[in-house]
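It would be a great kindness if you could assist me with a short task in structural biology. The matter concerns a single protein, recorded as an amino acid sequence and a row of backbone structure tokens. Could you please explain, in whatever detail you think fit, how the structure tokens follow from the sequence? Thank you for your consideration; the sequence and its tokens are set out here:
___
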Amino acid sequence: MANNFETWCAVNQALRSGFRGLPGGTTLAQLLIDELNAHNPFKQLPLDEQTILKWADEHHERTGLWPTVASGRLPNSRGENWKNINKALDEGFRGMPGGSSLAQLLAKHRHLRNRMRLPDLTEPQILEWADAHFGRTGRWPNQKSGNIVDAPGETWHSIDVALRDGHRGLPGGKSLPI
């Protein structure tokens, strides 16, 4: 008859301490690894940027998208996932120096736009884009003018928000025409 009061914590303690006829000196995690070839997330292999970039390239090839922390598990990786990779980059686990992120790594080596670290803007640059827009369309851009052809990844709406609220190195208090 099964004991309805058994807990995994109690089993782990018995394995550690040698209670209940067990020899001691091991853990539940180690037992599962040794006997069932289970994955232990606390004993993951060291990481390096080249491996992470290779996995990111494979993810992009497979899905058409670059990975983010929300991209889930990597296939055939024994439990590896993008959230843990990002954590290792950020906090310096698994041989990584820390202070980085998946987005920063991809921005640096794959020239992707990191939405959390957008470059500063200048009013002369915005005016140059506006002049080019006017030259192409015959109209000055407004917040609904869509993408900025001369600045991939930028939109006139995001420029308007930065001008109004003082983001990305701008003083604030200005806007595009309505």
